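User: I need a structural model of Glutamine synthetase from Actinomadura chibensis for a docking pre-check later this week. Nothing fancy, just the predicted structure tokens so I can convert them on my end. Input:
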Amino acid sequence: MVAVALTWVDVSGITRTKTVPVERLEHAATWGVGMSPVFDVFLLDDSITSGRHIGGPTGDLRLHPDLDRLVTLAALPGWAHAPALRYAQDGSVHPLDTRALLRRETERLAAAGWTVKAAFEIEWAVSKGDGDGFTPACRGPAYGMTRVTELAGYLRDLLTALKATGVKVVQLHPEYAPGQYEVSVAAEGPVGAADTAVLVRETIRAVSMGHGLAATFSPKVEADSVGNGAHVHLSLWREDTSENAMAGGDGPCGMTAAGEAFAAGILARLPALLAVGAPAVASYLRLVPSHWAGAFACWGLENREAALRFVTGAEGEREVAANLEVKCVDAAANPYLLLAALLAAGRDGIGAELRLPEPVGGDPAGLTEAERADRGIRPLPASLKEAVAAFEADDVLRDALGEAVTDTVSAVRRGEIDLLDGATPEEVAAVTRWRH
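Assistant: Understood. Predicted structure tokens for Glutamine synthetase:
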């Protein structure tokens, strides 16, 4: 091992880094590595905005590697990776440290007797072209074995690298769009799940480049094609008994009262949650009806058109497998910030003892507007501007995330809205394609 990449994810969803030679790792863990706070207001094109709490050239933070999550990067020989903790020089936690924010939300749930297991599904598309355009690296049928055969060596090396890096892969398969694949990993605690999401994406990126390919995780790679999601799977567990609250109850689909309330809390806040879960202008080119993106605020049993898909798992393993899949989110999201917001929404649902409406079967787009209104099925925001307005008006998320985070998220989102104001879908896709 020669060097260690210390990473954090900014508000725009881009993984940033400072690196240290391995002989400086102990010093970095003790004293940190300097960085400017201004990175939190970088936009996706690396231009800089400012908010009421963050902005300008003044100030310094200290990056401290979390040595408990230090791993060798099998796809980058000689390199290791450690997620960074960010502190002010006086030792206080930086208010925009979203990893610390997620840890705080996890602790708040634990204080109420609950823990969460989480995992991200990672979708990406692979290009064999040079330059800024996208040329699918495989052309077999959607979900077809042909796509595995076309890139068998690439996929083999990817699985090998992930295993060597300590990532537990559950499955990998071709997806719908040309050149698109998806990998699912084992569930773990929320902070670990977000760390793993970053690690998986950077491993995919490195293996792709090693094969002369380019990987994109953008929510909309091409304006006329299906985009990449980054669905989140969540299950709520009782800390004292290690029982899954999403199974074994007498609520909808076997949920316990707490499991139902957790899901209902997320459902109630979905419009606001999109400001952190579908945070790019390009996200709303993906988030359209009848594309399995979850464009309506509803839930359903194994319904891939609902924003929240409830998964029971196979008969005989439901006690461990039952979970909630959040489908309306994508990989432009900061995974730490997204999980923190989801946990806060779920925790509020438990505290308020919320209940779910009737589940939706089939595509909500197939119902008339009157039928959807009668059943309380609302379309999710159709633009980032609408999502930001819902986010700014949501007191539950503001209280959980804090004023500095709320203000900075809004500032960055509005900066990117202005950046792409008037752009065509093709231009939005092109600007976003290689940033995430």
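Before docking, keep this in mind: DSSP finds 15 helices and 15 strands in the chain.
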